[in-house]
Structure formats: structure tokens, C-alpha cells
Amino acid sequence: MKLLNDFRLIALLCLTLGLAPFFPEPHLWGKLKWIAGGATGMQPKDWFDVLLHGFPWVLLIRVIIVKLTSKNNA
Fold first, then answer.
1. Total domains, the chain
2. What's this model's pTM, rounded to 2 decimal places?
3. How does residue 74 score in pLDDT terms, banded at 50, 70 and 90?
4. At what angle do helices 7-16 and 44-73 cross, to 10 degrees?
């Protein structure tokens, strides 16, 4: 459970797995644009790819929310 709350590790995951490959644009960004455009032609492997590259960002948002709410409750 400690790994899921380690901000530095999750930030590293976001900058590596979350954005890889970096050129010509971050992979996740391209997939999100594809989904915003209607996701025409997306196959199950593309949806899995979105989950794989998006999961570190979900963890980052979760850690930020936990940190902000724990400061307000303490």
C-alpha cells in the first residue's frame, strides 16, 4: 500500500509509462484525441492501451486528492 501513496514513484510512472513513446506526441495524448474524435475504429487493444498508459495518471490524481483531503482533516 505504501507504493500506491509514494508521490515520487507515481510521478516517475507518469513521466515514463504515462507519456511513452514521447515523439511525435505522447501516446496517451494521441489516444485521448482519438477518443474525443469519436473513437472510430478503436479495437480492444487500443482501449487496453489507454488503460495501460492512463493508469499512472489515475494514481497521481488519487494521491493528490488523498494528500489534499488528509491536510484538511488533520
1. 1
2. 0.79
3. low
4. 150
Distance of CA 16 to the CA centre of its chain: 10
- Find cell 496517451 and name the residue: 28
Whether residue 74 lies inside any domain: the answer is no
What is the rounded CA–CA span in Å between residue 64 and residue 68? 6
Question: Concatenated DSSP letters for 21-71?
Answer: S-SSS-HHHHHHHHHHTT-TT--HHHHHHHHHHHHHHHHHHHHHHHHHHHH
Residue 7 lies in a domain: no
Phi and psi, residue 24, nearest 5°: -80, -20
pLDDT digits (tens, 9 = 90+) for 47-62: 999 999 999 999 999 9
Q: Does residue 34 lie within any of the structural domains?
A: yes
In a domain, residue 55? The reply is yes
Cβ(10)–Cβ(60) below 8 Å: yes
